[in-house]
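Cross-check.
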Amino acid sequence: MSEQTPNRLLDHNYDGIQEYDNPMPRWWVWIFWATIIFSEVYFIYYHLGPGPTIHDDYAAEMPAGDAQLAANLPPVLDEAGLQAIFNDPARVESGKAVFTGKCAACHAPDGGGMVGLGPNFTDTFWKNGDGSLSAIQKVVMKGVTGTAMQAWDTQLKPEELQDVVAYVKSLQGTTAANPKEPEGKDVSLATADAAAPADSAATQGN
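Predicted model, tokenized:
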């Protein structure tokens, strides 16, 4: 036990009220001064000296955070990999279930689109990308900034994401009950233009 000065009644008073002199325990006083000294050292080292700032800590931790995020994100398949899923009726049917639960509210249950919301998937016009499976995958995963289309890469399982991409592609050429007006570019024209030189070259070769 630390030695303490006994309580003493001070000789001054305020409106008849007298005060006891009851000092804090010595150990408490030393801790109090230690915290003050520590705060000064901390401030000098981290704010005026070579100590790392919160920005330095953030930059140091970002690579590990990015690596962990990348490990949790679904893999990005190339066109050939997505085409294999598109050719599998079971995967396309599975994508339909995902579409019905997650996408139909904005794109209509039959993919015909809704005014003020999602575009029509049944025609050959595309607002984002060229209508390829890879382009659809990019939009589904990352969303479209400035629109209601959100990113689904952290909300869907990899298989669900891939399946819904295949299903969206399968809607092209189908008949919607109330199709939305075409938006974007007609990708069928670009496909035709790309095929024309090849056909011409084949004709000349024959």
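The mean pLDDT is 86. The beta strands are 8-14, 17-21, 125-126, 185-186. Passed to J.P. for a second look.
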